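Retro notes - structure team

What went well: the batch runner handled both jobs without manual restarts.
What didn't: labels got mixed up in the shared folder, which is why I'm recording both outputs here explicitly, each with its sequence directly above its tokens.

Job 1
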Amino acid sequence: MSEGLEDTQLWPGEKPVAKPPPQQEAEPEPVAEPESPAESQAEPEPEPDDLPAEEDELPRTAAAEHAAGGFSVPDGYGVIEGEPTGARRSVGVVVGRFNGAITGELLSRALDELERAGVGREAVTVVPVPGAFELPLAAMALAKTRRYSCIVALGAVIRGDTPHFEYVASEAASGLQLAGLETGVPVAFGVLTTDDEEQARARLDKGAEAARTALEMADVFSQLRAAAGG
């Protein structure tokens, strides 16, 4: 008898019935072995800063500390702008002794700038104080005498390993601003706040800059008073 037909005795006239082929059991699918921790963690794509030099095609430049370009007021507007001139001006200078190698140079450059601007030595009063924290109190005292057209505050706060730096720098800045606001006498901020001594030495011209700022603001205030009185 042919394969696949029932192997049984048939009655006359009965046709053999095909026997379905035996079903083959499906082979179990292979189970993937769990990945090792090293294989399961895909390596992250490198950040732009981590790219090799040949893959990083963007030019890199150091961030500028100041925005370049000049400043001008459009034509047709009234302008009161001061000049850093020292003619007939008395100037008070408060300077911190702490970090004296830095503050001494700041003072020297500020005094040189005042002299170049026409401020005589007899018109300058220097008040040394222990450190930057004491600058606002001394500036306030000088301003309240009404003998000075402006005040120049000089100091150096260098970052250390404690939060002391943030407290001193913040209090010095806000205190000096308050001295000017309460008295109406310009107080120029010539306090360096740097991470190390090298950064401070690179910014010693801040002394001369503070002197020019103080004289310019004194001239602005003088013009405002004259305009109000006229």
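Job 2
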Amino acid sequence: MTTHIDTFQHYFFVGIAGTGMSAIAQYLCGTGKKVSGSDRLFDKNQKMLIQEQFEKMGIDCFYQDASGISSDVDVVVVSTAIEESNIEYKKAIQNNIPILKRSELLAEISKSKRTIAIGGTSGKSTTTSMIFHILQHAQISPSLMTGAGLTSLQKKGLPGNAFVGQSDWLVIESDESDGSIVNYLPEISIVLNIDRDHKEFDELMALFTTFRTNTYGRFIVNADHPASAQISMDKSFDFGTKSGVGFFGSDFKQIGFEIKFFVNGVPFTVPMIGRHNMENTLAAVAAVSAVGVSVEEAAQAMINYEGIYRRTQLVGRKNNICVIDDFAHNPSEVAAAIKSCQQVGKRVFAWFQPHGFGPLRFMHQELSELVSETLTNEDVFILSDVYYAGGTVDKNISSEIVSEAIVSNKKCAKFIPNRNDLKGYLKANLSDGDVVLLMGARDTTLSEFASEIFESI
């Protein structure tokens, strides 16, 4: 089902606390729509932070028991994670209330704006936030919908993953995992990389090729990545470290928690870690240049970039030990996060919680191989039990399959089933100059867990 966003006045979101759903809900509320929603994580007696933030915006929140689907609800919005057996899905059907998929709604919103869409299997949220930050600095005032909270917006008491600006520009994160990336008709598109994640490589290539076809303006790709380079349309706006591309990065250095490099001869200093964040910055510079922002102005903006939630986010430093929280959840992201942390401390204790049984089954071999190649002889890779978000799923696989494979590759790995036992293990093994890297997705308690680990060391 697709329809114009003005067809409905009252939107009800099932699973409104999820990052993708919450961003659209906030955006629609900011444009004057009536918005309400439910989430299984909401507690009737103790409100979550995001629930309090929603209610301050005027978004009514309910426990996921169908009590919020009143007679004045015009449409119910669901994600692909919501099954037809869900009580609210069934009530919408019974009451003849239209049901709209999250991806369909986002596509309709994007059609109403001059959209910059960021795609790729890694780095989407970071690059989206960088583009938004630079355009804000340039006083262009874009709108935003993304998958992770920007620190600059969170400081204002907002969830941070959505914003309603004054201009016609909209910056969105485009998801390939559910195939919804093919629904967008952006003016400017970016493909950061194409790696096997969620889907097989051939299927991903088909999705990103359609993404290119649907872009009516500037299509920008990472020329350093062989797969994305294959679908390039205009090398004068591509980015990378190879010659012959429009936005060329060079002389990369990481000094502590800061990276320095040049873009087309212009010096950049970005308060982040990791070479992959030079690539993300290059992508952002290419996109804002298509809007009309100079490389020099982009460089000035990035000096004060504050980052996003759980992307190589420093939890704290204690006893000369750093604890870093990261959203990494596919093999390339996990490897990139480890490499970033290797530049910060002498040893990396990298803990990973797989974000689902299906994803682990899909990626465990590639994860084992890539982590084995990335770890030094001093580093340790630790896994705990798979995160289970509910629903019908085959649980016949364990994280231990990865730790065993890494050990067979002569690198150090541990399987600690109960993640609460990680505190004792780290306390017994950490020493001066070490880095603790905590990785995982979907589980909303991971940030709290990172803080607990920091307090325990």
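One thing worth noting from job 2: Residues 36 and 60 are 5 Å apart (CA to CA).
We'll revisit the folder naming next retro.
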